[in-house]
Amino acid sequence: MPKGSNVPVPAPAVRVEIGWRSGPGVPDADASALLLVSGKVRSDSDFVFYNQADHASGAVRHDGKRTAGGQVTDALVVDFARVEPEIETVVLAASADGGTFGQIPGLHVRLLDAANGAELARYDSGDASAETAFVLGELYRRQGAWKFRAVGQGYDSGLAGLATDFGIAVDEPQATPPSSPPQPSPAPPASAVPAVPAPAPAVPTPPAAVPAAPAAPVSLNKVTLTKESPAVSLTKQGGTSGAMRVNLNWQVRKPPQAKGLMAKLNQAVAAAQAGGLDLDLGALYELADGRKGVVQAVGNTFGALHEPPYLHLDADDRTGARSSGENLTINLDHAHDFKRILIFVMIYEGARSFADLNATVTLSPQHGAPVDFHLDECTVPSTVCALALLTQEGGDLVVRREAAYLVPERGVSMQRTLDHAYGWGMNWTPGRK
């Protein structure tokens, strides 16, 4: 679609994928949506992005990132049946993280039928330069039907500037001018103090109405864990209630071009195997009452969100074809019931180690800033990796980056290897998917 053009949207719900090509030095980007009435949001709750993933109406949700074949997408899902009648427009935007859109190749937005994945529209932006935020498109009502327009409007003020332009109050540190010390008032001379009559009886006055506290502004903060700063308190971040989604994204590193016929043949075989890569996300848990267990696809132990263990794995993505990958959800309303949770990933098939995988882990609390980190390059023949450990420490729920690649001994399962390394003390039996 050319910029400014529009098309009808025949689907009752759509998946919006904002995508780009990945590569060395390419900044990350984040998708967002704003629900507008007369060109402005009604309140900060009409802003859907990585820190506020679901609209209260259920009409729009942030569905997260996906990496495949050198392409990265960050997705939103819009259910038109749930869009409130007064909402006229849903703006579809992106913000650059760590650079500008001139450094992000292949920027585009695709509109897909949420039911069958059929592409309904696509707009490719080819004129980005110093912008750090972009409105790529918008969904809008016309005579009771929905249409999509390609917009392509850039901002050099980032996500904060874009959000503020549509009426969002953004939480940003403001410089406070130094305050002058109070100056004492001079006392009047004694002779100048007038006589005053005795005070009249006090007449009670009704208490003044206390104004309602203004809503807290939207926070655009992110938390990135590194080797130097490997842990963060979810309690101090305000992320100890609601659901927290754990998402793992990965892509296969392209090795240098092999030389020689046999080397090229071996490289082709390895690439074919990686194309069928099946990674399994899971968690070992220990509850405050002493119960222990595992949530994983092996053995179909998918857990439960609203009863012990308060962890749930949504599905087993055997091929990488699911747009949202595998997601583990943790019910933080029961954070006091957790003693510790170890989040891990295993190679079920398609690769012999994590050596050629480039992965990012993102923990997205319903409230509070998302926590993400990259897995370091693997230098051992590892098939199981401990990603992160959640523990109760001094009344705080703390998430700690582990990024520990483990090598199972011959005949020892990956789960038993994790158990031994972290002292879980469970009995294991063979299981299958």
UniProtKB/TrEMBL annotation:
CDD domains: TerD_like. Residues 2-166 form the TerD domain. InterPro entries: Stress/Tellurium_Resist, Tellurite_resistance_TerA, TerD. It comes from the Bacteria. Residues 175-209 have a biased composition (Pro residues). Residues 170-213 are annotated as: Disordered. Gene3D superfamilies: sav2460 like domains (2.60.60.30). Belongs to the CAPAB/TerDEXZ family. This is TerD family protein. It comes from Streptomyces solicavernae.
